[in-house]
Write a structure and sequence with these properties.
Rossmann fold, globular, alpha/beta, 2 domains, Capsular biosynthesis protein, Capsule_polysaccharide_synth, seven-stranded mixed sheet
Length: 407
């Protein structure tokens, strides 16, 4: 069956353009809405339509496109962007399928592709028994083909995208980014933080060595990005400062008196908020200054394999913690936040009542999630894009999703 795909915003890379070309080659119709100069620069698969208005007019605009092109499928990255919500709401009313891309639930060799929504809007079940039964019907997955490093390619695509946005005031005058901070402000923060990280690596390595050689238990709190929709939309926390405050207050009152809390900064944090200094100030306020370690860098698998437990909101680090069989509490609603994988009690109780995850259940969960929502590929490097596009086409054109087949 020939389908009509409407592409909205993707990642800052050629991924969507390559995917659109591939679908065209398969005989499907492809239309793309460009919202800014970066979108236009990265799309060269034809069928582009510019939207130069504001969010308020998008529902009527999408309605016209759906009707004119007989749209059967919408493809987008990030289901919480303001320019995407009207398209998703309209698609639900008109029985148009929505395919949502996101960074992988299991990294680094996977990207996420789900119908209807991702993360907090994922349609993945929350019933552990369902995963036990569904796992009998799917293959056993390893770690996927390696993609190699992608940071340089990602940075280059991102800079190019935002350079092309410099003319938006003339060509797309009403466009407003979904990001809370401008790209150029983030870039300046990255430059400053990079000098600090270079100095911190040796200090952090020494701190990690002491943690491993010490007899004291330590808990890991990996920070996420304030700008991430996982925090802004799918959690009760507004910032990582708010998260640190609540976790440290609970840790000070309920954890063992000799336990240590390790706070690790996100590797892509732009450094606009001084999380290290704030962590030390909070530790002093709660009387645990000698029991807090703040890390700017550090080998995450080493930390996870030695941690007594892990506290997260809904980070993909939670999935890595489960790989390492670490007791885990999720303060948000991630896809892995199900009984048997994460602690279901309160944070206050977690410090002394935690238990390791059911690893049999986790292996079932992982295989099913990879089978139904993960694509072995990436958004940024040539190799990753080629792999991701090739494996996406069948998922996008299938009559039923892999999850529907299992349900």
């Amino acid at each position: 069956m020939t389908r009509s795909f409407l592409f909205l915003q993707g990642v800052c890379s050629p991924f969507f353009s390559r995917l659109g070309k591939r679908l065209n080659q398969e005989g499907h119709q492809v239309v793309k809405v460009n919202f800014n100069g970066g979108d236009a620069a990265f799309w060269n698969a034809g069928g582009a339509v510019p939207w130069r208005g504001g969010v308020d007019g998008l529902t009527d605009f999408y309605q016209d496109i759906y009707h004119k092109h007989g749209v059967t499928d919408v493809v987008l990255f990030g289901d919480q962007r303001p320019v995407h919500r009207p398209a998703i709401d309209l698609a639900k009313r008109q029985q148009v399928r929505v395919h949502v891309y996101e960074e992988g639930y299991f990294r680094p060799n996977w990207l996420t592709l789900e119908r209807e929504g991702v993360n907090g809007h994922s349609t993945l079940p929350r019933d552990p028994q369902w995963y036990r039964e569904a796992a009998r019907k799917v293959p056993r997955y390893r770690n996927g083909r390696s993609l190699g490093p992608s940071f340089k390619a990602r940075a280059w695509h991102d800079i190019r995208y935002h350079i092309c946005n410099l003319g938006n005031r003339w060509t797309f005058p009403e466009y407003k980014t979904h990001a809370p901070v401008s790209a150029w402000k983030e870039y300046s923060g990255y430059l400053v933080r990079s000098t600090r990280i270079a100095r911190r690596k040796q200090v952090d390595a020494a701190n990690i060595a002491r943690l491993i050689n010490d007899d004291r238990a330590f808990y890991l709190l990996p920070l996420q990005l304030d700008s991430d929709a996982q925090i802004r939309t799918h959690s009760r926390f507004r910032t990582m400062v708010e998260l640190m405050e609540q976790v440290m207050e609970s840790f000070a009152a309920h954890a063992a008196s000799d336990a240590v809390l390790v706070v690790k900064n996100h590797p892509l944090d732009p450094g606009l908020v001084p999380h290290g200094r704030i962590a030390r100030d909070l530790a002093g306020r709660y009387g645990i200054a000698d029991r807090i370690v703040f890390l700017e860098t550090g080998h995450l698998p080493t930390l996870l394999s030695n941690a007594t437990g892990v506290v997260t909101v809904n980070s993909t680090v939670g999935g890595s913690a489960l790989v390492h069989s670490r007791p885990l509490i999720a303060l948000g609603q991630p896809i892995y936040g199900i009984p048997g994988l994460t602690f279901q009690g309160t944070l206050d109780a977690f410090w002394h009542d935690h238990e390791p995850p059911d690893m049999g259940l986790f292996h079932n969960f992982r295989n099913v999630v990879i089978h139904t929502t993960q694509v072995n590929g990436g958004f940024y490097t040539e190799k990753g894009i080629d792999m991701g596009v090739e494996q996406s086409v069948g998922r996008l054109t299938a009559v039923r999703s892999r999850l529907d087949v299992l349900a």
